[in-house]
Amino acid sequence: MEDNDRVNSAPLTPRPASMAPTPPIAQTPSIIVSAPPSQFHSPSLSRSPLLTPGGTVIRKTPRFRTPRFITPLGSPIRKALKLTKLDPQDAWLPITESRNGNAYYAAYHTLCSGIGIQALVLPVAFTVLGWTWGVICLTLAFIWQLYTLYLMVQLHESYEDGIRYSRYMQLASATFGEKLSKFLALFPIMYLSGGTCVALIVVGGSTSKMFYQTLCGATCTSKPLTTVEWYLVFTCAAVLLSQLPNMNSIAGVSLIGAITAVGYCTMIWVVSVAKGRLPNVSYNPVRAGTEIARIFDVLNALGIISFAFRGHNLILEIQATMPSDEKHPSSVPMWRGVKGAYTIVALCLFPIAIGGYWAYGHMIPANGGMLTALYTFHSQDVARSVLGLVSFFVIINAVSSFQIYGMPMFDHMESNYTERFKKPCPWWLRSIMRAMFGYGCFFIAVAIPFLASVADIVSFWGM
Questions:
Q1: 57 burial type by CB count under 10 A (0-12 exposed, 13-18 middle, 19+ buried)
Q2: For 295-342, what is each residue's pLDDT tens digit?
C-alpha cells in the first residue's frame, strides 16, 4: 500500500513544448460537423470566424462524451450553433432583396417568362419539318425543357455546404471556376436578358402600331406615328414600369403578363380553327433548291421550336425569391410552380402549333406567324374588337416580360455599385441605371433592323 502511494504522489517528468502529449480521441478539444445547415445562404456571404474555408462548422465540446440521442440532427442545440452571418449585399440587390416568394409567385414568373409572342411562329417550323417531325421535335423539346428545368431547380441549393446559387453566374462560377465562367457564361446571360428585351421592344412597338391602326380604322384622318416612334412609346412604358424595386414586387405584373399570353394564344388558334382551313392548303414540307439551303431551313425550324421554350436563365433568380431551410427547401414550392406553369404552357403551344398549321399550312407568313396570318386572312371576317383585343394582349405581355427579363441586368448593374461602395444603391441612381438600360435596348432595336430575322437561330445556339 505504501509503494502505491509513493507511485501516485510522484511528480510527472516534465516534457518539452514540442513533445506535448496527443490527447485521446475521447478528449479531442473540437469536432467538425459537416451536416447540412438549417439555413441555406448565398455564396456571397461573409463567413464567421467559426467557419472553415470548406463551409464546415467548428465548435468546442466538453471533455466528456455526449450521448448521440441528446443531440439529434435537427436539435435546437445544433441550430443555435449555426453562426453564419449574412452578407448585407444580398439584401441590397433586387433579386434577393425580398425572400417571401411562394409557389404561386414562381408559377406567375415562370409562365410569364416561358410563353410569349415566339409561340405564334411555331407553325412556320412545321412548314419545313412536316406533320410527323414537327410534332416529334416539339414534344422532345418540351420534355427536354422540363428535364433541364428540374435540374436547375435542384442545383439551386447545396445540401452539403448550405449555399444557395441565386444567380446563374454564381452556379457557373461554382462549376467552371471564376475566370472560365466569365468567358463561358457571362455573354450568354447578358445576351439572353438584354437581347430578349430588345426583341420585346421590336414586338411591342410593331404591335402597338397595328393596334392603333385597328382601332382607328380605314377612315382615320389623323397622322399615325412611325414605327420608330412606336418603339419609343413602348420603351417609355417599359422603363416606367421597371422602377418597381425587386423581383417579388413584379409578381402582379408577371401574373397579368401570363394571363394576357394565355389569352392571345388561345384566341388566335381558336379563331383560326373556327374559320376553317384556307383553300388550296398544302401540308407538304417546303424544300429549298440546294442542299445547303435545306440544312439552314431545318436549323431555322429547330431554332423556332427552341425559341418557343425560353426562360432557363431566370429559373435560379425566380427561386432565389423564396425562403429555404433544411426542413422546407425552396426546391419543393419552386418545382410545384414550374409544373403548374408548364402544364398551361403545353395547353397553349401544342394547340397553336397543330391548329395553326392545320388552318394555314404552307401559306402561313414566315414573319409574324399566327398573328400576321390572323390579320392577313381574317381581317374582314373577324370583328375589329377581337383583333384589337389580341393586339392589346400582345402589348401587355411584352411590357410585362420586359420587367422579368430585365431584372438580371438590373441586379448586375446594382451589384457593381454595392461591391464598390459597400452600401445599397440609392433610389435615384437605380432609376437612372434602369432608364439607361431601357433606352439602350431601344437604340439597339432601331440601329439593328435585322435583329428579328436572326433571333431564332441565335436563340437555338443560346439554348
A1: buried
A2: 888 998 998 898 888 877 889 999 999 988 878 889 999 999 999 999
